[in-house]
Amino acid sequence: MATSKSLIIIALYSWLCSSSYSFEANSSEGLLRIGLKKRTLDFDSVNAARISRAGDHYYLRKKGYTRRNQMDSKAEIIYLKNYLDTQYYGEIGIGTPPQKFMVVFDTGSSNLWVPSSKCLLSINCYFHSRFKARLSSTYTKIGIPCKIHYGSGSISGVFSLDNVKAGDIVVKDQEFVEARKEGFLAFLAAQFDGVLGLGFEDIAVGGATPLWYNMVGQGHVAQQIFSVWLNRDPTSTVGGEIVFGGLDWRHFRGEHSYFPVTQLGYWQIEVADIHVAGNSTGLCDHDCEAILDTGTSFLAGPTRAVAQINHAIGAVGIVSFECQTVVSNYGNRIWEYLISGLRPETVCVDVGLCLYNGSQDFSTQMDKTFNNGTEKGSSANETALCTFCEMIAFWIQMQLKQQKAKDRIFKYVDELCEKLPNPLGKYFIDCDKIDNMPHVSFIIGNKSFPLSPQQYVVRVGQGCSTICVSGFVPLDIPERRLWILGDLFMGAYHTVFDFGNLKVGFAKAA
Prior knowledge:
Protein name: Peptidase A1 domain-containing protein
GO molecular function: aspartic-type endopeptidase activity
Strand content: 25-35%
Pfam family, one: SapB_2
Family: Belongs to the peptidase A1 family.
Mean pLDDT: 78
Largest sheet: 6 strands, mixed, barrel
Keywords: Aspartyl protease, Disulfide bond, Glycoprotein, Hydrolase, Protease, Signal, Zymogen
CATH architecture of the domain at 75-220: Beta Barrel
Number of helices: 11
């Protein structure tokens, strides 16, 4: 689409669909806590992001906690940033002395990678920190090439070996990838440098041993678990924590409910059903599987299932959103002009959405809309809003010929808007209706884990320019009904990844 609004949406899509879920299957005792710093979501702050640390103001709450709730005095806390309120990442060091990198701690993949100083042909690398092997006294060259695929792009590079520092813990001889080429759209706008995978070694590309395995094997953690708390309070300066080797009792209420990992590779569990407003959708009659993925911002599932849920909660696709916006803002004027006898293309000129061009017929405009594109050399009047206006005027005109009443005609037009294709895969919501939207619940085992509309809707921008986006996005994996439960789910539920017992636990986040 040619409108500036659509260009913003397309740009927004490049980071909204960012998913680090990878499909390639090819110290002394204590806890390591990784704190997550948060900032509000707005477009202007994307390029102005800077790494900052929280001060000593972060204390335990006294009321309601016993001595066992207190944080271990030996625990290392690393405060991290939240990328646009949808991605959580923080600092590690690689080499001796440590070279600093910001990485996503990703339970949906198993490799560690950062950009290499030899990444010369990818413009992305010039916007991020790059590893300089010659500056590390503990570096060992491996040199085996590899490529890692993610849901939103890929990187390629070579394997290397060096020490990795997280807080005061140093994991020795850790395999990692020096990325020499990065997918352009996937990583260009990212504020983080690389990815640290926390999945199982079964899916590690090149058979590399994940950092978490070495952390356990070298005795850096007290228990073979790590836990995740993501703070969804936009007013807080602390975005959350990752605790390696234990739990932080302050950040959940009640006991965790644990469910077995059904398939090694990902942190994958079985989902029995999905409810909307307390009613079964029947989407998991033959069982669904879900992957807990801290590297994915949203709740991703099969296209048909996501479309059904988004319809039930009142969300519409980008094309439907534009179409309904034209109906809402210009519908009555279009109606008045049509009943006065004007043609659809003339009506849209009069309401100010089209510039008159008698050389192009309406059917050509419609074809371009459904193909989500414009022809080379098209004139300035061929905007999306113009096309939608003419389409709506045509629909109304056809219904007027059948002598339908106005309310029935506009109901029909709304239904047609809803059925339009959704090529970008994102669904939009009227921000004023969020409080009245239904809860969506994932039934895991015999327990319900509901998400309120405030928890599954993402707000983009501030004030009158705010756009509300549904957290349910389509992702189809052949022959599998697989869901990805990303940051929106883990923001509502404190999550324990029990490596020793191959279980995942959830408790209500606090």
